[in-house]
Amino acid sequence: MSKSDRPEKGIASPSRRNLLKAGLAAGGLAATAGFARAAEPDPYNLPPNVADWSRYLGVGVDNAPYGMPSEHESEVVRRSVEWLTASRESSINFTPLHDLDGIITPNGLCFERHHGGVAEMNPTDYRLMINGLVDKPLIFTLEDLKRFPRENRIYFLECAANSGMEWRGAQLNGCQFTHGMVHCVMYTGVPLKYILEEAGLKTNAKWIMPEGGDAAGMNRSVPIEKALDDCMVAFKMNGEALRPEQGYPARLVVPGWEGNMWVKWLRRIEVGDQPWHAREETSKYTDLLANGKARRFTWVMDTKSVITNPSPQAPITHGKGQTVLTGLAWSGNGRITRVDVTLDGGKNWHQARIDGPSLPKALHRFYFEFDWDGSDLLLQSRAYDETGYVQPTKDELRAVRGENSIYHNNGIQTWHVMADGGVENVEIS
Amino acid sequence: MSKFLKVLTVAAGVSLVAGAAGAGKLGLGTEATPEQIAGWDIDVRPDGQGLPEGRGTVAEGEVVFAEQCAICHGDFAEGAGRWPVLAGGWDTLKSQNPVKTIGSYWPYLSTVYDYIYRAMPFGNAQSLTPDQTYAIVAYLLYMNDVVTDDEFELSKENFTSIRMPNEDGFIDDGRPDTPLVSEVQPCMTDCKEEVKITKRARIIDVTPEDDGETAGINVD
Known about the structure:
The structure holds two protein chains of two kinds. By secondary structure, chain A is mainly β.
């Protein structure tokens, strides 16, 4: 092909968006948010032709002082379910788990849960107050916090209500919506015990009450044993400052425990001799059982896993043959030791391969490669942790807790892969 | 210096840093004054710790509630639109649709005061006076039939004498409540004869789409 045969720049294929719509209308694959089908390739970019990007200079440095993802990744975004909440300021969005790999969540994709919108704090006016049962009540600036010895720790954060919409049955088509209230980043911060010891704990100090500086004044009760064990006050995530929606400039980290306790925009910690029974640990974040009694102080996030690909937003587009199944597993009690997967709805199970770091209270990435024969599949994953906990089925959870619990649904998820590669959220016998 | 001594020196340096941190008293932070603490120390506990001086009647609360709260929660705390219902819900906790109100679910009255003062009205938090807050709480007690006298006045003095109907409705975390691996030894091969699909998300059809809104049911 000579140069004169090349098309004018700009005569490109139709937009990806239009292709996507056409694909959805024509195909039988589930029409679900975040489902992306590969656009048709442009033959002018394929061998033996030489693409424009191989001929002409690209943009130079400083084009993007803060780098952003490729424009071709524009569908990799957090999404919300508008009908879940009455307002946008007290609401939730979800991590696009089906578009991610490894164990670290990029900062801009970490799900958000606010109760009074994102507080816009400036770091100069940030203050953390420690009061209550301490020898000397103290106020720290952000600069003060950065003078304590620091630690770096990778932890998952899961909202207690993750998968809460699925208690009564399969409801949402997409692991972003069924499991996307989880993220995992590396925090840099100060062990909370150093800060508490600086103020000096009285002997009757049994609980702390972290409180947010946002318009919800989020407050929770945390037992002193946990506070002195592995809690941190973090000011960095994945190496850079916390994002505003994740509590900039400083948040509490409560490893393995429900996300609501990880108070963002942390402004105060009161030390006391008994719990506060705040709204978020009585009216909310308590687990109502079938007999009308409710469990409270249900802090730990139990062992859980989900297959992220294939899933409703990430169907199989390549047809039968070599196929990669992957997913995430995590436990609030420690490391994941094993993940099993089934392709036939639990008739036969196979041990998946965990790859990448295996850290306590962090996401684990698992893979299972197989030769798909093009027939219907019923996919499930089942995780185990180092305490001997096995991820239960949803029916096992319902048998002991009923269907009104909302929180702490860590039951096994089922995806139905259809012959055309489309995937739907189902439950099975 | 021998290799052994070098290792010792390095180890000692590390332990010095760790020791300093563990011992506390790094000289960081400044002492909080009583005035500073008073401005931020807004929490209230079930035993009454944190309650400010103040008082308010049911009738006063009705007026404040109508002005500050009713647009979201309804004139009678019955809830407007999607916003929380604050009253009623008796005998629903075992049902398919539990209505978790202050009267039917909340175990302690202090939680009502604490939450209203710190977070309400939505969008104008920490703007109510203690008297207004006591009055709203008194009105909510009346709407929930916890008090039946419309001349009832709630104050710091009588606050902890009020007990909520569902105080005994809460129990400790019972987990793990499913079998551990030592108890079940999960099956790996030929575990089931037959598998059937019993539930499908697409029947409910509430998954949002990028180009449109989807109406659905709220689980909370």
